[in-house]
TrEMBL record:
Gene3D superfamilies: Winged helix-like DNA-binding domain superfamily/Winged helix DNA-binding domain. InterPro entries: WH-like_DNA-bd_sf, WH_DNA-bd_sf. This is Putative repressor phrH2. It comes from Halorubrum aidingense JCM 13560. It comes from the Archaea.
Length: 103
């Protein structure tokens, strides 16, 4: 986790926002592109989640909200460094037949 991630989570705990609003709320110290990049990282960690907000009939924007995991992280109850993905089993097409010795 980077320092900007915590600041993003703090802002989202107040209310849902889009990446542009978050960049402005962070006093312009971080570009909207960087905020968008960190939001995707936080979404992979399940700390935030995106949703589409309809602005007009033909226009919508992606807004972000904090999840329970993000709230628990801000409360100091979750350590993001301990969340290690478990490897998945190999698919059947990538395994060798049982009788194949590989010599």
């Amino acid at each position: 986790m980077e320092q900007v991630d915590e600041r993003i989570l703090e802002r989202l705990s107040e209310r849902d926002r889009d990446a542009w609003e978050l960049a402005i709320d962070l006093d312009g110290a971080v570009s909207a592109g960087r905020v968008r990049e960190r939001l995707h990282v936080l979404a992979d960690a399940e700390f935030v989640e995106p949703y589409e907000r309809q602005l007009t009939e033909d226009r919508s924007e992606k807004y972000w909200s904090i999840t329970t995991w993000g709230t628990l992280y801000l409360a100091g109850e979750v350590d993001p460094n301990l969340d290690v993905p478990v490897p998945s089993p190999r698919p059947s097409y990538a395994t060798r037949p049982g009788g194949w010795a590989g010599f």
